[in-house]
Design a protein that fits this description.
single chain, 256 residues, wza like fold, Outer membrane lipoprotein wza fold like, 5-stranded mixed β-sheet, 3-stranded antiparallel β-sheet, 5 helices, 12 strands
Length: 256
Amino acid sequence: MLKRMNLNFPKEVAFLLLLLTASCVPMKQLNYFNDLDDLQEPGVNPRMQKIIMPFDKLYIKVLSIDEKTNQLFNATEEMRSGVNNGVLGYLVDEKGNVNFPFVGNINVVSLTTAQASEKIQKALSDYVPQTSVTVKYIDNQVTVMGEVKQQGVYSFIQDKLNIYEALGLGGGLTQYGDRKKIILIRNVGDKIMHYRLNLSDSKIAGKDYYYILPNDVIIVEPMSAISSSYQNITYTTILSSITTLIAVLLFTNVKF
């Protein structure tokens, strides 16, 4: 005659089973662009060239057929690898001006780099004829924090860096990063703006915050199903713990 089985599990086993169940995450939460099949038309990309703002740092190079003019205005070497390696940078002050040699303050705020090049070239024409001016951004930085593989402050030289490229600088999301809960912190004038981004929504490409601006901060929140405090616990560890616990209980003749 079969004996009635006692279904009262030890608390330790119940806890480990609960932990294992809680660690299971639906695939939908791990995928990007869950709505691609629902798209009827390509998304509109709001890509616009970045305009110069106060506290941007600019690389300005003057080219002239006169070698002495080149030496006068270009005291440092060429920009290398997009990193500020001895490159002379002009800081845009709070009023939007750059202090250029012999010319003085030139207001470049709200201009593109191409427009700033034309304005500086025109200002120089009164002193040096037949010049060409190149303006580029340097020392653009974005901070990536939270559930990414490598948190940190990263430099970039692109006029526009999208949210996926920015997260890629930090190695991408960890297995615990919630693609639907990305926080973007941005300084807009004298205000600090907070945006919530959903990376699984393909329509994100049509949003103003799809492209990253210098000094933006990106924070990846953990999935609610998994606390980041368990990031060193793997399925192998959990199953191994359960197996070991059951073996010990059987060895000590504890009835289930």
